[in-house]
């Protein structure tokens, strides 16, 4: 609904902006990180929000309350976009009013950069870009906030690269993608590059979220792909798949890539 972004803005201001004309005794509470994780845990990115693997950061607010336990079905794109908008707007308003908040002695919740980087911001924003008729009122302010707080996710090359983001070039593939198939293909990358290329092309024919479950095993072979005996065509296909994965959870992919290059896995 077109009113929702404005309601989010009012909600954020009610948490952070001090009203000099009225009482400031009562403030709304910010949404906890665990409540936000609960939403994304029920989305297609759920595996990346396993509560057993995530450390919950305590909120620093005036009166600490326990988070509300939510029982959510699969969230819609709109609900996820609104949560991203809330988070980015909250941090934007908090930083803009930091001096006033400190002067008034208020302890305010801040969402860490590490937590924000866990979220599929880039992927969700691109989904909104594809359907601006439905999300036009949300896409522009989201893009502005993204450019301010996450300039590394706002690179022009990424947004202009139709090969990475476009759906028109995808075709049906009869290759069955699995951990075993990907392992076998990369283990024979020098002796049988055709087999590796077939797997990489199959990955390119999938949506980024469909191949994300294979990201860890895919990145594990990055040093093998850089070998002198590997055909340039295979290296280019690998790069294209990596860029497609980079549209889903960039920071997570970067960490996996660095670990693979440094043999830290």
Topology:
Layout: H1 4-16, H2 33-41, H3 77-96, H4 98-103, H5 113-118, H6 121-130, H7 132-149, H8 156-160, H9 162-165, H10 179-187, H11 193-204, H12 208-211, H13 215-219, H14 222-225, H15 232-245, H16 250-261
Helix pairs in contact: 1-3, 3-6, 3-7, 6-7, 10-11, 11-15
Task: Explain how this protein is built.
It holds the Pfam family INTS2. InterPro entries: INTS2. By secondary structure, the protein is mainly α. The protein has 2 domains: 4-154, no CATH class; 179-261. Helix content is 57%, strand content 0%. The protein has 16 helices and no strands. It has helices at 4-16, 33-41, 77-96, 98-103, 113-118, 121-130, 132-149, 156-160, 162-165, 179-187, 193-204, 208-211, 215-219, 222-225, 232-245, 250-261. Helix 1 runs parallel beside helix 3, helix 3 crosses helix 6 and helix 6 packs antiparallel against helix 7. The protein starts with a helix and ends with a helix. Mean pLDDT is 78; it is low at 51-72.
Characterize this entry briefly.
One of its GO terms (cellular component) is integrator complex. With 265 residues, this protein is mainly α. The chain is built from 16 helices and no strands.
The dominant shape is: elongated
Strand content: under 5%
Helix-and-strand structural type: mainly alpha
Number of strands: 0
Number of helices: 16
Domain count = 2
Rg, Cα atoms, Å:
21 Å
Low-confidence stretches: 51-72
SSE order, one letter for each helix or strand: HHHHHHHHHHHHHHHH
Round the mean pLDDT to the nearest integer and report it. 78
Distance between the termini: 45 Å
Major β-sheet annotation: none
């Amino acid at each position: 609904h077109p009113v929702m972004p404005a309601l989010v803005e009012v909600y954020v201001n009610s948490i952070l902006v001090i009203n000099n004309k009225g009482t400031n005794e009562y403030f709304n509470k910010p949404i906890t990180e665990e409540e936000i994780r609960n939403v994304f845990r029920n989305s297609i990115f759920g595996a990346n929000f396993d509560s057993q693997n995530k450390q919950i950061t305590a909120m620093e607010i005036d009166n600490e309350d326990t988070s509300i336990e939510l029982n959510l079905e699969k969230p819609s794109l709109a609900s996820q976009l609104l949560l991203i908008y809330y988070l980015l707007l909250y941090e934007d308003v908090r930083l803009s009013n930091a001096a006033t908040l400190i002067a008034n002695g208020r302890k305010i919740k801040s969402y860490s950069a590490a937590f924000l980087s866990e979220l599929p911001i880039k992927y969700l924003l691109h989904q909104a870009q594809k359907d601006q008729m439905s999300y036009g009122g949300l896409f522009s302010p989201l893009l502005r906030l993204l450019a301010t707080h996450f300039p590394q996710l706002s690179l022009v090359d990424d947004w202009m690269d139709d090969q990475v983001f476009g759906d028109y070039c995808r075709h049906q593939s009869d290759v069955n993608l699995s951990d075993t198939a990907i392992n076998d293909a990369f283990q024979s990358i020098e002796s049988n590059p055709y087999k590796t290329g077939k797997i990489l092309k199959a990955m390119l024919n999938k949506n980024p979220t469909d191949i994300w479950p294979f990201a860890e095993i895919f990145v594990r072979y990055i040093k093998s792909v850089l070998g002198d005996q590997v055909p340039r065509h295979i290296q280019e296909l690998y790069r294209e798949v990596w860029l497609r994965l980079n549209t889903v959870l960039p920071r997570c992919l970067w960490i996996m890539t660095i670990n693979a290059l440094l043999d830290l896995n």
